[in-house]
Every structure is written in structure tokens, then in C-alpha cells.
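Usage

Read records sequentially. Each one opens with the input sequence:
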Amino acid sequence: MSDITVITPPDKLFDQATKILLITPGVGIRKDISEILSGVSAAVNLFLYDDDNGLHIEWVLDILADCDICIIDVDNSTEMIRKFASLIIANPKTFYLTDDSITPYNLISANRIYDMHWLDRFLKEE
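and closes with the structure output:
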């Protein structure tokens, strides 16, 4: 079992652990992440941002700049996060999930994902 630390706004943690930022993850993503992390032996800081009406958007942007991976569930995001979605998705460390076939996020980033299975491989390579 790994050393997993869950951090929520406005807290921050500065250490050498792998840093993952989850932005408005749905229930399925939370379940998948939990299962993946249960099999990882490395230290992981899991920064979790849920709906708070945009009160901590600066925190999200600060953590985004420092994290190793960012995962955003666009369809589960609040209006405030959707206003920043293009900026977040444009970050090369960001992977996004969406069923939206109208908004051309693929023009900003090719990092669209459909499940969390790739994360297991990434964490085991760390």
C-alpha cells in the first residue's frame, strides 16, 4: 500500500511525492483512482478539487503549475471551472474526460482519456 495524502483547498503540501490534481471527479473516476492507488507503492499526494463555487480557483491554478498529472472531468465541472477549462486542458500535464462532442477540446489537447487504466502504468513507472 502506498503513502497517499489527500489535500483539498486551501491546503498545499510541498514534498517529493508524485502529485496528482483531480478536478471535479465523478463517482466512477473516484472509484477507479481509489482502486489504482491501492496497488501503488510510491508516495502520492492527491490534490482534490470539488465544487466550491469557484472560491479556490487560484488554488487549482497553483496546484496545476506544480503537479505531475492533472485529471479533469469536464462534464462534472462547475460553471467556474468550465470558464477555465481551456486553460487547464492546454496544460500538457492535463488529461481530460468528456462526452461533449461539440466543444473542440481536441484542438487544444490530444490528452483526452476515456478511463483511468493508463494511470496505473504511469504510477508504476514513477
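Summary fields computed downstream for this record:
- The chain has a mean pLDDT of 91.
- Residues 75 and 99 are 7 Å apart (CA to CA).
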